Amino acid sequence: MDLDSMDRRILTVLQKSGRISNAELSEQVNLSPSACHRRVQRLEKEGYIRNYVAMVDPRRIGLPTMVFVEITLSGQADELLEAFEREVARVPEVLECHLMAGSADYILKVVARDTDDFARIHRQKLARLPGVQGMQSSFALRTVFKTTALPV
Question: In the chain, what is the straight-line distance between the N-terminal and C-terminal CA atoms, in Å?
């Protein structure tokens, strides 16, 4: 299914306010509540809307340190990549993992309490992942902006 302009408006609003009521959503996109509800259900069923989540403030829960870690593996065999991906997904401090083209094989987005906590995560978890040959870590000094909203 192709998205029309109404679907895009619905997605734009829901990405910014996922808990909005159907009545409020229908008003914002200028559509009847029943038609709006049907469209949202279709967007969910067809996989355009994968989930609804709460965005937790990492500072409020004691995880203010954001680190981007470039990982280089010892090889590129499918078995090694699969083993690495399976195990890195089990590290709760890793928020994102991206297979890369370029100098690093993967880039991870990691949260920690502070630099000592990151050193622990690095030593006890990341360095022990299958096939890790090298790591380069970059600490975020300040988040300039952050969004999860895609430009629909």
Answer: 15
* Distance (Å) of CA 1 to CA 8, 48, 147: 13, 10, 26
DSSP reduced 3-state for 72: strand
Measure the CA–CA gap between 114 and 118, rounded to whole angstroms: 6
Q: Which amino acid is at 71?
A: I
The pLDDT value recorded for residue 34 is 98
Question: What number does CATH give the domain 7-45?
Answer: 1.10.10.10
Under CATH, which number does the domain 65-139 receive? 3.30.70.920
* Residue given tokens 């009545």 in the structure block: 23
Whole-prediction pTM value?
0.90
